[in-house]
Amino acid sequence: MSSNSGGSLGTDLSSRGGRPGHIEYKWIALSVTTIGALMASIDSTIVILALPQMMAHLHAGLVEMIWVIMAYILVSTVLLLTFGRIADMFGRVRLYNLGFVIFTVGSALCGVSRSAGQLIASRVIQGSGAALMMVNSTAIITEVFPQEERGRALGINGITWAIGGIAGPLLGGFLLSMANWRWIFYINVPIGLVGSIWGYIALRELSHRDRSEGFDARGALGFSLGLVALLFALTNGIQFGWTSWPILSLFALSAILFSAFFSLERHAASPVLDLSLFESRTYSLSVIAAMLQALAMFAVTFLVTFYLQVVRGFDPLKAALLLIPLSAVSAVVGPLSGIAADRLGARLPATLGLVIQCGALLWFIGRLTPDSSYGVVAFGLVLVGLGGGLFWAPNTSAAMNGAPRNRLGIASAALATLRQTGMVTSFALSLAVAAGSLPRGVMMQLFVGTGISLGSAPRQAFVLGMRHAFMVSALLCACAAAISLVRGPEPASPATVRAR
Hints:
The chain is mostly helical. The protein has 3 domains: 1-205, Growth Hormone, Chain: A (Up-down Bundle); 222-271, no CATH class; 280-489, MFS general substrate transporter like domains (Growth Hormone, Chain: A, Up-down Bundle). Helices cover 79% and strands 0% of the residues. It is built from 20 helices and no strands. The longest helix is centred in the N-terminal third of the chain and has 35 residues, at 23-57. The radius of gyration is 22 Å and the shape is globular. It starts with 7 loop residues before the first helix and ends with a helix.
């Protein structure tokens, strides 16, 4: 696959404005990355709804179905840093287009799977493609848009994740009622084909690549194994117990491998992770804020979904639809916050977003009971969506603005890796806190959407556990807000100068 465009359209784009700041190319590049984000966002929500049907049709067990989700998360997280380094060496467009193709092929293979093992293996392929798209889409947007427009572009790109949160349950419910679970994967194939062809035709490399740089295979392997050990420990802690020897051993192994990784990277000629990135105060604090925000907020949606199913007795599809206010508000606010960041800088909107999300958690802590009306839940979800919409695009824009141009791939990869790790950790941490008063089997069944109704005492205990989890999340969110506030001045852009 060529690193340049695949046909005459790409040549024409190059001659008419294939440089940052020329509207013809930058918006076309954004359209390609937006298609990829839409496909990934729909897939992330639609699969959960289909788990019970997949379990029945494939005669699979609970653990196998959990791995249908976890295989995708683990692979798409572990490979980010390695793929980011390879993209800086061999081209972001080349790797992004390859990711589109791999994700599409993986989706088709998921659809034709005849056993749980085949489905899990196909999800691994899907996750590999997702990692390639994820790590390069932000870098491509950063590269083609001038600094004064990056926030708006990232905000527009971020709309697709909110739209996916709405479209996933609706589309999933329709497909599962009209056909079977295989179509939740087949639906990706036409979208993937369009995106793959459009990306091959329209995208072109703008960055200079130095292929003489080596690839630190030892560092990549050490980091990947360390992250696998950490994620395995986090995702299995509830099942085996946090103080059991397998979980403690995995945490210890992870710490040893990460220590060896950072030791190797300090002396590597061509490190997988360029530690000089973190010399930028803006970049390093923006990345830390993103990780803490993910750690604080990612599991909130899952806990509220469990509340709607366990305490209120709604079926999984209705519970998912009742979460729409969060995605709808985020979709509206995201692009506006990006525009605000382009004009005023990222610190104000990003910090305000985190403060609002902290307020949402305090609202849930103070008002959520087993008999709360949906209005109480909806108001909290609106605050969560408002805060997330204000935070994501400005914070990502600030991080990428603080990275050198020839390291955008690895800068995006480090940001995505820490954010994804924060998401997985959030899930494990919040469920561990919230599930403390419930039998382990109940929480494991809820995880795959089997509706369970509890008696009065367990319902009270579950809500109390949610409040404890939200207290931890509120503290983390407050820490993220403090870090966002002190991230330091950003490089001035023309729009920022004019606004001042």
